[in-house]
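Exercise: predict the structure of this protein bound to iron/sulfur cluster.
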Amino acid sequence: MNWSQLFSSSIGKKIVMALTGIFLIIFLVVHCYVNANVFFPNAQENFNRAAHFMGTNLLIRVTEIGLFAGFILHIIQGYKLELQNRSSRKSRYAVNAGNKTSKWYSRSMALLGTLILLFLIMHLVHFWVPSRFGGLTEVQYGNDPIVFHNLYAQMQDTFAPMWVVVVYILGCISLSWHLLHGVQSAAQTLGWTNKKYTSIIKSIGFGFSIIVPLIFALMPIFIHFGWELNLGSLTLLF
Amino acid sequence: MQHYTMNLKLKVWRQQNSKSEGRFEVYDVNDISSEMSFLEMIDVLNEKLIKDGGDSIAFDHDCREGVCGMCSMVIDGRPHGPWQGTTTCQLHMRAFKDGDTITIEPFRANAFPVVKDLMVNRGAFDRIIQAGGYISVNTGNAVDGNAILIDKQNADDAFAAAACIGCGACVAACKNASAMLFVSAKVSHLALLPQGQPESKQRVAGMIAQMDKEGFGSCTNTYACEAECPKEISVMNIARLNREYLQSNLGS
Ligand code: HEM
Ligand code: SF4
Ligand code: FES
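Solution:
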């Protein structure tokens, strides 16, 4: 037994899916936290400062490369897994048990992943491409000499048409379903589940899969309508 | 429950051998008693087919009491039919009502080639067992059952895993035709006991390598296997198998 076998065997492939999946979950948490600035007063400056930090910090730029690698590994391995699994039953059943014995979203991870991927490409074109390759307006705040990319204005432009907001919400719904299966599946693949922990893991997975995509979905809505959440002194770190 | 009789329409998969194309044939069966088992109902149909000079429907069966795991078939999309925790031989016709149409197919998986009609070759399971699903001991007098102390919980879990009858319903139910529930039961009932420890690393590595070679799919944790297993083997065994596999790889 060696490492290459660990990653080429059926369980090994699942371990790659689970590890990259968890890595993507960590990314989601960070991404969600930084973007949550858009909900609060003074959103433009706070969000642009946070985005500036994320875009210039060396550690974060290095992690970004890891993030792309993680995505690519997850996607390639995901499609390979799906194709191999489909081809392990050449003759199909005339009648299927369907939802009686498993959840539809558990059976549709590649489909949901594909929807997320399509969303992701559009999302990168909206924000990542202009912030890396130019096309954003610039702003300065007070006496601060730093010139910031006005990514916030880019969001306002992007989310001005309602249909873009709707597409983003659909993307978040796909993500929610992907995670509803994915979180507990990753835990099971890594062998963390047992009689005691399974119900706790499933509850955490369920909560995460609803709450995080919901927060993401609220962002384009807030920006489209120009809402802000005034909770007095409560704001984010940035 | 009241006894009743029923007339049914059966759509049955007929296939000459593993090479030929299969197709569905439709048969009428009449005056079936609600007290009959599902296999007895097929027996009635086969008697009639033979009397009419036709070819009887081939299906596997042996014990007809839910312990041998031979009676593989998919009934209306469900391996071993609609009842939970039940083999086909223990399924009774009171699960159906007069006028029902029942679709009967073989277990479908590349690793389980059809021998004829509803019969499949589950030899792949035997080869997985040969790849590590055993312990090597010198035989002799039986040792005192209490000579080796075993944690109660482990003993119970091992016993529950050992209930697997190797029927293959987990493979038939899985959208990926994965054999993980079967392999996890066979790894678990040895991994939980002290006698299984010395060979635990080779066991899990060998069995998984053989499982992959036989052409079963990867597990994607949909848990359809657990829902269909006639012995209600828990997917917690799959988590244990994953742990054993990781340990076997990281440890060497
Ligand atoms: C932010 C984006 C994403 C996150 C957080 C995420 C998360 C996860 C997690 C946690 C799993 C479970 C791993 C396991 O079953 O062991 C998973 C599985 C999977 N993901 Fe993703 N994923 C994302 C994007 C994608 C994309 C873009 C695809 C495109 C194809 C994809 C395809 C799959 C597939 C096919 C599986 C395997 C399903 C299974 O094993 O049941 N995912 N994902
Ligand atoms: S795990 Fe259950 S369904 Fe699978 S072979 Fe064993 S008894 Fe049959
Ligand atoms: S014939 Fe033995 S389990 Fe059904």
